[in-house]
Amino acid sequence: MQVNYYSNITLPTVISIITPTQWFDKIKNSEYSETITQARNGKLPYTEIKSSLPCITYNFLFNGYKKEENIIAPTGLMYIDIDTPEFDLSKVDTSKVYCYYKSFGGHGYAIIVQVDGLSKNNFKPSYLNVCKELGIYDFIDTNAIKSTQFNVLSYDEDIFINENSYVFTSTENSPQSIVRKEKETYTIEGGESKEYQSIRFNNLDEIEITGEYIVDWNGIEWVNCFIPFKKRDKGRNAFLLSYTNNLLWLNPKITKDRALKILTNVNKVAFTTPVPEKDLLKTINSILKYKNDGSLRPIYNWKPRKIVFKQGLKLNKEDKLTAVRRELAIRAQSQSRKKITTILENWNYEKSGKITQTKMYKDYPISSKTVEKYWNEFKEHIKELNKTLDKKIMTALNNLIIILINTPYFLTLVQSRFSFYK
Exposed, middle or buried by CB within 10 Å (0-12, 13-18, 19+), for 113? Predict the structure, then answer.
């Protein structure tokens, strides 16, 4: 088996072909392990790092450039993206899984299976049938159901590989609508309710957005159920209290059983040594006391969001990354222009004299590339500033001459000169 290899998700041009084994080795012994870990922990810009790393396409081989029209043949593999804290990997039949590992973000999973007979026409129904058979249909990222889906390099020392896994057969059925099954839920008091209640893990749906997304570089405060990127054992109780606090605040009608199920899965994902179930119940009961007496308050995420996309948009991850890169570029341009404006407003004429490109980047904290890039935009304004400086110099010289002329010493000097010539 072989897969196409790319420089990063912004460049869909195929640069080489590698084997899945070679890709798995890169994940297990990633040369970018430290960079990915820091991006997961928020110490490096997550989106920028993700969009700069190598990637592959698991589903199909492409002729030169990644797009459906250029599909050459199936790889024999299918990539399934899981990105929800409710997912319990232990319940998946791994004999049917070729490989799984943590996604780039560290919370979700990439699940790879073998499928025979895939084509771009039967890809979607085959994808859904495989997910149903694996019992993961309710947890898939529906935006990733694409024959052209990228998979960015991740890092997972515990990657699972089963080269003798079950081989699924593709289906020719028409693609079905992706609709979540209704589930029976129960109130805290125990009464049965057939109305399906969706669980919220953040409150981003409450932010008013008129277009596709909103940008606020000052930061938008938000509430979410945060899971650490790396498993840990320190501070387990504090973490569980914080997570449960926000889970119950975001979902005021959630049942205790439902909350316990979610917390049980989070417990497995977050800690090397999960806490006993009785402690989970204690945590839920303690937060329920605050909820029932009306004193429950949210715990805001330590890192405000700068860009928030409107909920329900049919934008895939690549579309969102494109929008983020565009906004970052606009911001960078705005900041560069603002920086030049500030330098011009505070220009030290006594020290630097007339304004020039060279003086600007040598005497002030700004790069030569930035100055050269935006110089033409400020060129006319700079000419006027330099003309003003010339006028100020001439005025100062004239004033100096007048002062000199009116001094007794100057008059005596002039008289003595005239006497000499006589």
Answer: buried
For the record, the structure tokens of 48 come out as 């920028």
CB contact burial 383-413 (16+ within 10 A = b; e otherwise): eebbeeeeeeeeeeeeeeeeeeeeeeeeeee
Does the pLDDT value for residue 180 go beyond 50? no
Q: Which residues of 63-97 are buried (b: 16+ CB within 10 A; e: fewer)?
A: eeebeeeebeebbbbbbbbbbbbebebeebebebb
Dist. CA 139–CA 127, nearest whole Å: 13
Residues pairing with 305 in the sheet? 220
**Residue position matching structure tokens 């694409």:** 146
Q: Which two tokens stand for residue 299?
A: 């715990």
Amino acid at 374: Y
- Domain spans in the chain, listed from the N-terminal domain onward: 3-169, 187-309, 318-405
DSSP 3-state of 142: helix
What is the DSSP pairing of strand 305-309 with strand 16-18?
Answer: unpaired
Question: Rounded to whole angstroms, how far apart are CA atoms 59 and 92?
Answer: 21
Buried b (16+ CB within 10 A) or exposed e, 197-232: eeebbbbbeebeeeeebbbeeeebebbbbbbbbeee
Stretch 24-50: mean pLDDT, rounded?
Answer: 85
Please count the other Cβ atoms lying within 10 Å of the Cβ belonging to residue 374. Answer: 17
- What is the Cα–Cα distance from 109 to 105, expressed in whole angstroms? 9
Q: Is 62 helix (H, G, I), strand (E, B) or coil?
A: strand
Q: Phi and psi dihedrals of 98, rounded to 5?
A: -75, -40
Q: Per-residue pLDDT tens for 127-138?
A: 888 888 888 887
Q: How many CA atoms lie within 13 A of 406 on its CB side?
A: 6
Q: pLDDT tens digits, residue range 369-385?
A: 898 999 898 988 888 88
Strands (E), 160-251: 160-161, 167-169, 185-186, 192-193, 213-220
The structure's pTM equals: 0.48
Say if residue 255's pLDDT is above 60. Answer: yes
Give the Cβ contact number of residue 262 at 10 Å.
23
3-state secondary structure of 285: helix
- Confidence tier at 183 by pLDDT (50, 70, 90): very low
pLDDT band for position 397 (cuts 50, 70, 90): low
